[in-house]
């Protein structure tokens, strides 16, 4: 089985070069995230980046409507945005948020895991691994401003950040709910959750596929702060000040010290993890469970 299509190769094949903000904001000079004037937003079709180089950070807005599901193209664009900011010395931090009202992310794109061939599953999983590794180990400070419901792979993305602010809306539940779909959170999803909330809470949350509403997410430590909905971004910005005041090299090395052992577990068995995923997701029973779940999502509308 052809396992590897590197994310960079993938990038070349899927993406147009950096484009100025498509859609409504195209060609406009928008106020930068921190309020600076004259700094252009940039991005790709599904990721809008509002840079504030003077303040040293950028707001990265996910906009893959309707639910910010993490398709292969979207994962690739998120990675490119991250890489671009990481390679620019003006940026020390990112605030990750959503441009889709009421939804942070519905997690991995079920259409990428349903009815496709093993080569596609392998390519997709490699991109999911890459996204986690790059966000989890980024030398930038990454704060998520969670302004909507946030399931499974979307929750993993938020858990990979250094700090999480969640909007106080009881509809905005968040968690690793894989078991509700009849699937299993991979070990590195599990490790990331354990590192955040501790073993006992993770054990219960993972088995039951719990999605925590804001007050509970705060109580178990899945998020660091819950604020009124209209203050999520400003709270993330305020928090950033504390992180940016720390000498960068000391903070980065400490982050690496804390996170590298977890990332190394995946790095050591990356191909085996892809093969496990492909074998697992290709099983008839799993495909059936995913189809049933997708059908339920569609039926709830009728
Ligand atoms: C032993 C070895 C083990 C190895 C590892 C093995 C396996 C690991 C495998 C996979 C891990 C996966 C992790 C995941 O992330 S799975 C995804 C989990 N996500 C969810 O459960 C969320 C599902 N979505 C929802 O609950 C709702 O959509 C949501 C609350 C987010 C929003 O509700 P709303 O009412 O606003 O919108 P909907 O009408 O439900 O949705 C609109 C539209 O979008 C489609 N859709 C929703 N979620 C997804 C998704 N994750 N992927 C693809 N498409 C999605 C939905 O079907 C609607 O489509 P349509 O009807 O408009 O066509």
Automatic annotation (TrEMBL):
SUPFAM superfamilies: ClpP/crotonase. It is an enzyme of class 5 (isomerase). GO terms for biological process: fatty acid beta-oxidation. Transmembrane segments: none annotated. Its EC number is 5.3.3.8. One of its GO terms (cellular component) is mitochondrial matrix. Gene3D superfamilies: 2-enoyl-CoA Hydratase, Chain A, domain 1, 6.10.250.170. It comes from the Eukaryota. It is found in: Mitochondrion matrix. PROSITE patterns: ENOYL_COA_HYDRATASE. The keyword Ligase does not apply. The keyword Amino-acid biosynthesis does not apply. Pathway: Lipid metabolism; fatty acid beta-oxidation. It catalyses: (3Z)-dodecenoyl-CoA = (2E)-dodecenoyl-CoA; (3Z)-octenoyl-CoA = (2E)-octenoyl-CoA; (3Z)-decenoyl-CoA = (2E)-decenoyl-CoA; (3Z)-hexenoyl-CoA = (2E)-hexenoyl-CoA. Its main location: mitochondrion. Keywords: Acetylation, Fatty acid metabolism, Isomerase, Lipid metabolism, Mitochondrion, Transit peptide. GO terms for molecular function: delta(3)-delta(2)-enoyl-CoA isomerase activity. Belongs to the enoyl-CoA hydratase/isomerase family. Homotrimer. Key enzyme of fatty acid beta-oxidation. Able to isomerize both 3-cis (3Z) and 3-trans (3E) double bonds into the 2-trans (2E) form in a range of enoyl-CoA species, with a preference for (3Z)-enoyl-CoAs over (3E)-enoyl-CoAs. The catalytic efficiency of this enzyme is not affected by the fatty acyl chain length. This is Enoyl-CoA delta isomerase 1, mitochondrial.
């Amino acid at each position: 089985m052809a396992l590897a299509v590197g994310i960079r190769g993938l990038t070349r094949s899927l993406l147009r070069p950096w484009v100025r903000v498509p859609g409504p904001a195209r060609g406009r000079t928008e106020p930068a995230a921190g309020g600076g004037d004259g700094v252009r937003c940039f991005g790709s079709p599904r990721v809008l980046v509002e840079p504030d180089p003077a303040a040293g950070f950028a707001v990265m807005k996910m906009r893959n409507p309707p639910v910010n599901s993490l398709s292969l193209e979207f994962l690739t664009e998120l990675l490119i945005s991250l890489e671009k900011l990481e390679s620019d010395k003006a940026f020390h931090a990112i605030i990750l948020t959503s441009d889709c009202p009421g939804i942070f992310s519905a997690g991995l794109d079920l259409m990428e895991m349903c009815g496709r061939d093993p080569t596609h599953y392998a390519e997709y999983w490699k991109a999911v691994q890459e996204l986690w590794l790059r966000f989890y180990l980024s030398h930038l400070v990454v704060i998520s401003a969670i302004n909507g419901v946030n399931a499974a792979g979307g929750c993993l993305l938020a858990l990979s950040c250094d700090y999480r602010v969640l909007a106080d809306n009881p509809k905005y539940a968040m968690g690793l709910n894989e078991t509700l779909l009849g699937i299993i959170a991979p070990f590195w999803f599990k490790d990331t959750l354990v590192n955040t909330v501790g073993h006992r809470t993770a054990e219960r949350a993972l088995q039951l596929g719990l999605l925590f509403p804001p007050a509970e997410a705060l109580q178990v430590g899945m998020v660091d702060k819950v604020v009124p909905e209209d203050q999520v971004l400003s709270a993330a910005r305020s928090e950033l000040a504390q992180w940016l005041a720390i000498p960068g090299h000391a903070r980065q090395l400490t982050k690496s010290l804390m996170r590298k052992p977890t990332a190394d577990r995946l790095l050591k068995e990356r191909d085996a993890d892809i093969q496990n995923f492909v074998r697992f997701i290709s099983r008839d029973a799993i495909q059936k469970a995913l189809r049933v779940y997708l059908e339920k999502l569609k039926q709830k509308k009728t």
